[in-house]
From TrEMBL:
GO terms for molecular function: amino acid transmembrane transporter activity. Keywords: Amino-acid transport, Membrane, Transmembrane, Transmembrane helix, Transport. PROSITE patterns: AMINO_ACID_PERMEASE_1. This is Amino acid permease.
Length: 484
């Protein structure tokens, strides 16, 4: 393992409330506000609920796995560093670059989406102007201090949480007939083919939607490197996030399913570019709230900016960490006096801006770039599960006791094994119909990130002749003052 030193240390300024809200905010976004409608339309209310519960439980176990490693070794590179230390440097190299690339590309997607959302109010202003404004704003927030990022993300996430709480209250009042004039009860759960529609294949397809909705929770591992007290804040954040995610997602989908039948064509067409058919908007309108579309548009804009903000943070820290491990040029090791890896942030911004430009000048190139980052979140989750499995086995093999860990994941090895199985199922099930129809272009667009990951992995493995680290040689000792 490389000596993780740099010009300055990234400052540990993130508090427990920051980390909890960052992880929660990372998982509450357009996946809930918009895509939840398509989940219900595909698999019915029962299928959607089952998929989100299963993925929610899996994400919880995944976060406990990450928490065990993050409290033992809090670093700003998180799971890429753990893959390097506990599995194989080639895996850490591939994980780190893949994740950085994913967020750099996602940054371009988010600023493009922000422009689409702004068209709801100001349709005559060119979208690139809004995208440029959002990109500059996000860059400046991240360039100031770690605390500036944490505070901004905290309040943007708070807006989303408050929206969900209000939605749940309004939804329940509408279900029982206090609002909206007609009590629906559970009638839509037994409407036509409900609650389960389309059988197992339809439910499995919703696993994909649910998986994308929960992506971003792994940010808790990256923020651990800049937490003032990771041994306290990370476990607390993980436990809080699990219950909040399960509560918000399951109750929100339950409310939507009660009030809107799965056959509604508006659910089927849910997209981030048309807020008027967000299931949240539909429910608010059903309750008689006329300003619902405008309010939800503002919330979705907040969600998109929050995603871009988190993306800028995560990608710049990952590139910084890659440079510390000598997987990226040493140039990116430098941080400002405020502890911000500004050079890594500038590089991320340039890639995001170039990707955005291709979206205007070369739509086909843009499509493939976005496709190349599509499954990276699931690949990162796989890496976390594998790293934790190896870490715990090495920890026990070397004669350590679990009481030595500041936080330990429950139900080992069930957690990482469940995460491995479900992640593989979700990745494989992304576009089964493309294989059935031998549509090679669609297969390429859907699964491009998988071969790219293996190219990175085997490139490093072959060039540097790396091997799987024997369990008795894995460095599992706690790192109290890790240089980050």
């Amino acid at each position: 393992m490389a000596d993780r030193t740099s010009d300055n240390e990234v400052k540990r300024e993130l508090k427990t409330r920051h980390i909890s809200m960052i992880a929660l905010g990372g998982s509450i976004g357009t996946g809930l506000f918009v895509a939840s409608g398509s989940a219900i339309s595909k698999a019915g209310p029962g299928g959607a609920l089952l998929a989100y519960v299963a993925l929610g439980v899996m994400v919880y176990f995944l976060m406990t796995s990450l928490g065990e490693m993050a409290t033992n070794m809090p670093v700003s590179g998180s799971f890429a560093t753990y893959s390097t230390k506990y599995v194989d440097p080639a895996l850490g190299f591939a994980m780190g670059w893949n994740y950085w690339f994913n967020w750099a590309i996602t940054l371009a997607v988010d600023i493009s989406t922000a422009a689409l959302v702004m068209k709801f109010w100001l349709p005559n202003i060119p979208g690139w102007i809004w995208s440029t404004i959002v990109l500059i704003l996000i860059f400046l927030i991240n360039a100031l201090t770690v605390k500036a990022f944490g505070e901004t993300e905290y309040w943007m996430a708070m807006i989303k949480v408050v929206t969900v709480v209000i939605f749940l209250i309004v939804g329940v009042l509408t279900i029982v007939g206090i609002l909206g004039g007609h009590a629906t009860g559970l009638e839509n759960f037994t409407y036509k083919k409900a609650p389960f529609v389309g059988g197992v294949p339809a439910t499995l397809s919703v696993f994909v939607v649910a998986g994308f909705s929960f992506q971003g929770t792994e940010l808790v591992g990256i923020t651990a490197g800049e937490s003032a007290t990771p041994e306290k804040s990370v476990p607390k954040a993980i436990n809080q996030v699990f219950w909040r995610i399960l509560l918000f997602y399951i109750l929100a989908i339950f409310v939507i399913a009660c009030l809107i039948p799965y056959t509604s064509p508006k659910l089927l067409g849910s997209s981030a570019s048309d807020v008027s058919i967000s299931p949240f908007t539909l429910v608010f309108q059903r309750a008689g709230l006329a300003a619902a579309a405008s309010v939800m548009n503002a919330v979705i804009l907040t969600s998109v900016m929050s995603a871009a903000n988190s993306g800028m943070y995560a990608s710049s820290r990952m590139l910084y960490s890659l440079s510390l491990d000598h997987f990226a040029p040493k140039y990116f090791q430098h941080t400002t006096k405020n502890g911000v890896p500004l050079r890594a942030q500038v590089a991320t911004t340039i890639i995001g801006a170039l990707t955005f430009i291709t979206g205007i000048t070369g739509p086909e190139v843009y499509t493939w770039l976005v496709a190349a980052s599509g499954l990276t979140g699931f690949i990162a989750w796989l890496g976390i599960a594998i790293s934790h499995f190896r870490f715990r086995r090495a920890f026990i093999k070397q004669g350590h006791d679990l009481s030595e860990l500041k936080y330990h994941a429950k139900w080992f090895p069930f957690g990482p094994i469940l995460a491995l199985i479900l992640c593989i199922v979700v990745i494989a099930g992304q576009n089964v119909s493309a294989f059935a129809n031998f549509d090679w272009e669609q297969i390429g667009v859907t699964y491009l990130s998988v071969p790219l990951f293996f190219i990175l992995y085997f490139y490093y493995k072959i060039r540097y002749h790396t091997h799987l680290i024997p369990l008795d040689q894995v460095d599992v000792k706690p790192h109290k003052e890790t240089k980050i």
